[in-house]
Amino acid sequence: DAKTTQPTSMDCAEGRAANLPCNHSTISGNEYVYWYRQIHSQGPQYIIHGLKNNETNEMASLIITEDRKSSTLILPHATLRDTAVYYCIATPYDSWGKLQFGAGTQVVVTP
Amino acid sequence: GAVVSQHPSWVICKSGTSVKIECRSLDFQATTMFWYRQFPKQSLMLMATSNEGSKATYEQGVEKDKFLINHASLTLSTLTVTSAHPEDSSFYICSARGQGAQPQHFGDGTRLSIL
After folding, report:
1. Poorest-confidence range of A29-33, A54-58, B83-87?
2. I want to staple B91 with a disulfide (CB 3.0 to 4.6 A). Which of A69, A110, B38, B50 is the partner?
3. Are A64 and A53 spatial neighbours (Cβ–Cβ below 8 Å)?
4. Distance (Å, rounded) from C-alpha B4 to C-alpha B27?
């Protein structure tokens, strides 16, 4: 699986868009980019995933660069409940779909 | 949709006892289930992967005789920590995935404390 690099922490203002970067310069053609978040003492929550096209759902948007070496998760209007550790994971889709979690980005949304 | 239920939420046991944790997919059939462990201030570590009706595949360094995994149906997987000791105290989290290009969905975890 491709290694991903994320900033250790980010602060975001409530109501503003939060843009979370992820670098995956060694990603392979069959690897998807998944984003999860983990609020303290809970299991991770699935946010979004994509292969090469930009994706949007009710939670967030995922922007993947044309060369697929990096991506950005966008939370359009951050709320205090978005405070969490956000994980960007690159993994091939196959019958196993294993996820290897890194350290992630600690996002703190402030009033 | 895509709800995964994990039980119990927390358990405290004496050293030497065995503890069983259940993981259920409530609204989808989980062809593959995963078990993770997370120590304080650390990230999740994958312990094992199981497909329904097959033996689990354990990650390197995880003792298969210590952590027994059963995935007997498309909606239920269990993790049994056998002869638990204080060093087994951790946050155990399961996830489940359906067929096709489906993401994993996680339970809320089980906090295990061995005295």
Report:
1. A29-33
2. B38
3. yes
4. 8
Using the beta-carbon criterion (under 8 Å), do B32 and A96 form an inter-chain contact?
A: yes
Query: Could you tell me which residues come within 8 angstroms of residue B101 by beta carbon, excluding any fewer than 6 positions away?
Result: A32, A93
At CB < 8 Å, which residues of chain B contact A?
2, 4, 6, 32, 34, 36, 43-46, 49, 51, 91, 93-95, 97, 101-109, 111
Q: What is the mean pLDDT of each run of 10 residues along chain B (115 residues)?
A: 91 96 93 94 93 89 95 92 96 90 90 96
Question: What are the backbone angles phi and psi of residue A22, rounded to the nearest 5°?
Answer: -150, 130
DSSP annotation of A5 = B
Short-list A91, A50, A96, CA closest to A74: A50
**Rounded CA gap, A85 and A74, in Å?**
14
> Tokens standing for B1?
């949709």
Residue B35 has φ and ψ, to the nearest 5°, of -125, 135
Distance, CA of B92 to CA of B115 (rounded, Å): 17
Cβ-based neighbour number of residue B39 at 10 Å: 11
